[in-house]
Amino acid sequence: MDVLLDTLRQRELKSLLLLYLFVGNVAAYCPKPESGDGIDLSDEALLKNDFPEGSEVTLECGNGYEKQSGSGIINCVDKKWTEPDLVCTKKDCGPPKAELHMYFDTSEGTLFGSSIKVMCEEGYATHKFLYYPPNCLVILENLLCALTCSKSVKS
């Protein structure tokens, strides 16, 4: 009889142990954080696949944006990410440099992502040596865009 009770207790203990291992001891994970408007995950965070409870991730301002305030650090707490405190604003690209007989319509502004319209004085037409729309982009600083205005030739 004692043997039977010990066997039942062992089964009960094994069942409780298995229940604890599979249900009670499941680690909490956060989903992969998402990028926002002008805010990206750091390179280190992009390389991670798992974000267990207590994980810390750094956010950064994306290309064309600059940091105004905040640390950019978020934490995984109760399977959710804390609210980011990072504030990023669009960079001002400033007006482009006009060539002779050229002017620009910057009515959309000169912030990152804005478009400008290139125009020539009356009697002149644009000639593009590179097909590249004159948008305000980060790479514009390093791009020599050969855009000139030349006298129209009447046939």
Descriptive overview:
The protein has 155 residues and is an alpha+beta fold. It has 2 helices and 10 strands. The strands form 4 sheets. A 4-stranded antiparallel sheet has the order 1-2-4-5. Strands 3-6 form a two-stranded antiparallel sheet. The chain is rod-shaped. The termini are far apart.
Radius of gyration: 30 Å
Please name the fourth-level CATH homologous superfamily of the largest domain.
Complement Module, domain 1
- Shape-level CATH architecture of the largest domain: Ribbon
Total number of distinct structural domains: 2
Shape: rod-shaped
- SS field, number of helical segments: 2
Query: What's the average pLDDT?
Result: 74
User: What is the fold-level CATH name, i.e. the topology of the largest domain?
Assistant: Complement Module, domain 1
Termini separation (Å)? 116 Å
State the total count of DSSP E strands.
10
Task: Kindly report the spatial arrangement of strands forming the biggest sheet.
Answer: 1-2-4-5
**CATH secondary-structure class of the largest domain:** Mainly Beta
Helical/strand content category: alpha+beta
The residue ranges in which pLDDT falls below 50 over 5 or more consecutive positions are 17-25, 133-150
N to C succession of SSEs? HEHEEEEEEEEE
How much helix, percentage-wise, in residues? 10-25%
Which band does the percent of strand residues land in? 25-35%
Domain Sushi: 28-90
InterPro entries: Sushi/SCR/CCP_sf (IPR035976), Sushi_SCR_CCP_dom (IPR000436)
Protein name: Sushi domain-containing protein
Keywords: Disulfide bond, Signal, Sushi
